[in-house]
């Protein structure tokens, strides 16, 4: 059997919709995010935890963990002792050491799992949204020249351009640096050292509106509320559900 390892890319993809948290059902074991951003993340490298002959098995475990984490962020939803119980259930199945009938457990407790995850996810989303609103208010207070549009986008011109402004049908070439409101970098062409080209109509609404306000050669900060970004779905493990995003964007070229 061939296992496809997750690839890493840097293209911002338009997304909308709400995360459906369904841990167990008769048709699906786990829900997927409505949309997912594939981001380049910098992870510190170090010595391998096992000898080379054991590392393929470790890699298999990492692959399974990455796929599960992209579907549901259990680290945010569960307490430490609850994660240990979760891993015990996983281990029992993998080792074939379960002491109860797995299907009976899923049929009896599956609905309770779904209700628990929904409740906790809703609480996290509301806290993240509130943090975003507070961040936007603070950003506007600290940057008098920043403007908030009718849609809720915050636009702050860092450098005025002199060229053309793009429309949604155009291809643009940009550099960008994207962070969460706590400063965590979730995607950055600047860090990768290469600009990126894409059709403006293919990315999130906040980018479509914000870049249309720019001109070639310009640079701006965009603070994008969740309804103009990835909404309640979030995007993979990089952008939490309900997150407000901050981008520093430099527009190099507009190609009609």
TrEMBL record:
- Its EC number is 5.2.1.8
Per its record, the protein catalyses: [protein]-peptidylproline (omega=180) = [protein]-peptidylproline (omega=0)
Q: Which Pfam families does the UniProt record give?
A: FKBP_C, FKBP_N
**Keywords recorded for this protein, A-Z:** Isomerase, Rotamase, Signal
Q: Which residues form the signal peptide?
A: 1-23
Domain (PPIase FKBP-type) ranges: 169-255
SUPFAM superfamilies reported in the protein's UniProt record: FKBP-like
**What's an example of a GO molecular-function annotation for this chain?**
peptidyl-prolyl cis-trans isomerase activity
From which residue to which does any coiled coil extend? none
Q: Which Gene3D superfamilies match?
A: 3.10.50.40, Peptidyl-prolyl cis-trans isomerase, FKBP-type, N-terminal domain (1.10.287.460)
Q: Which domain of life is it from?
A: Eukaryota
**Top enzyme class:** isomerase
- Its name, as the record gives it, is peptidylprolyl isomerase
